[in-house]
Amino acid sequence: MEDILKKASYWLSHFFDEDTRKETQDLIDHDPKNLEESFYQNLAFGTGGMRGIMGVGTNRINKYTLGKNTQGIANYLKKSFPDLEEIKVAIAYDCRKNSDTLARIVANVFAANGIKVLLFSELRPTPLLSYSVKKFNCQCGIVLTASHNPPEYNGYKVYWEDGGQLVPPQDEEIIAEIESLQFDEVLFKGNEELIELIDKEADKVYIEESIANGTFGVSAENRKKLNICFTSLHGTSITLVPPILEKAGFTQLHIVQEQAEPDGNFPTVKSPNPEEPEALSMAIELAKEKGSDIVIGTDPDGDRLGIAVRNENNEIELLNGNQTMVLMTWYLLEKWKEQNKLTGKEFVASTIVSTPMMRVLTESYSVTYKEGLTGFKWIAKLIKDHPELSFIGGGEESFGYMVGDFVRDKDANTSILLACEMAAELKAKGKTLLDQLKELYVEHGYYQEHLVALVKKGLDGAAEIKQKMIDLRKNPLTEINGEKVILVEDYATSEAKNFQENKSHQIDIPKSNVLIYYTEKGSKVAARPSGTEPKIKFYVSVNSTLDQVENFETKKEEAQQKIQQILKELGV
């Protein structure tokens, strides 16, 4: 506690503003628990950048932690591009509390360091920021967002000149630059001449490229026949999804008006996360009223999407992230095949915790399949590392997808367009997305996944998560639901142990705190602490054959029972 008091006392110095000093003193005097939580560590970069609770302290999102980050990045940019006459940074922000204010603070720090800033004048989705970094020849991009985290959170994602998020070794180098600074070294007083407000010019070119990448010749008549219900869940996608769909010719678009106004309090949902069925409940009710074929919702910064469609009983059913990813990948592969664009020099990408069906599906088209760690920054890195290959598309289980490489991050806007294009084409053939998914299961095998995320908040929670991973490594599973474990991949040590062949090999993927078990019958269990939330996640995948569509419900029930038994054995 002595170290924490020392760190907190520094925040009482006159460099910090009066409100910050007062809040810090209140924590010291009256709230030792929150004082510890606010100062016990420096807020770190994770899977999707930096996210945290807003407030005073080194472990919180505030003017000073973001200012110090930005100063470190400004210093790093100058070292990385010493011969560039003008270094440029694009900055966007979402609907969260203080996002606009924090974006202006970040802009001022860059400008104070002589760096040109292209600052969006209003909130915009994260994919537009990724796109703008490349389109406007910026060396870096920042978006102020905490994605789908609760209202008390905000965050800071950093992009590099290729439009992808930071990956090693740059992230470690930038962190070292940040950690070498003191707060009083941050230049907060910006040069207004170096800050340029942008918006409509970026929207226009992005919408055009989104339509070019997300449509495949479905007739105007069939697009008009698709009945769509959409909710932005109080987030940024309201600025781009409607104009993209309307310009592409989807005229039957019903918007959940109660959730259309951007609002960082997210007043109509428990969590603004399209992974949660409850988040789409208002949209599903509107869809029932309007007779919609498809329901779509996005998270606050407009990069994740949730989709619900009609099932055989005409009820609206939510697809999970793996199912959406498989369908979109199938559609892209089919269209590339129809257009004779598959030359043997293309690839699809996903992540190590996503459904194994992605590999099976992709390789059935004789297309290369590549896998990376969780997070789209790794898919962006695969694109960057393999310029000899054309990227078709890819995604991950957590409701994200990327269509082509014009955006180097998950992109709900273009993915929604692609989903509607696919749904319109299937509807014209008398089919739904679920019908098509079942046919894919018959052809490639039935796969079912389930995710359990255990929330462990604060200092004690972090210790509990750390101990859980230590225990799993000390006492590795040898059997799962009566099936022998034949392979264990430990991404922390980069070692994979094959017990059938009694061999080990190195994993050619950057290190990460992830353990994955594979059984003799194809079941897969992964354990991974979240990189952006106080959670430890367990991913379970099981598979079997499906001989005909009519037996789908039986197979689904069998898989669910198997998954529940596995979770029971894991104690989660």
From TrEMBL:
Protein name: Phosphoglucomutase
Membership in a protein family: Belongs to the phosphohexose mutase family.
Listed cofactors: Mg(2+)
Superkingdom: Bacteria
Ranges of residues in domain Alpha-D-phosphohexomutase alpha/beta/alpha: 44-183, 218-308, 320-440
Keywords: Coiled coil, Isomerase, Magnesium, Metal-binding, Phosphoprotein
Keyword check for Protease: no
One Pfam entry name: PGM_PMM_III
Positions in coiled-coil regions: 542-569
InterPro entries documented for this protein: A-D-PHexomutase_a/b/a-I (IPR005844), A-D-PHexomutase_a/b/a-I/II/III (IPR016055), A-D-PHexomutase_a/b/a-II (IPR005845), A-D-PHexomutase_a/b/a-III (IPR005846), A-D-PHexomutase_C_sf (IPR036900), A-D-PHexomutase_CS (IPR016066), Alpha-D-phosphohexomutase_SF (IPR005841)
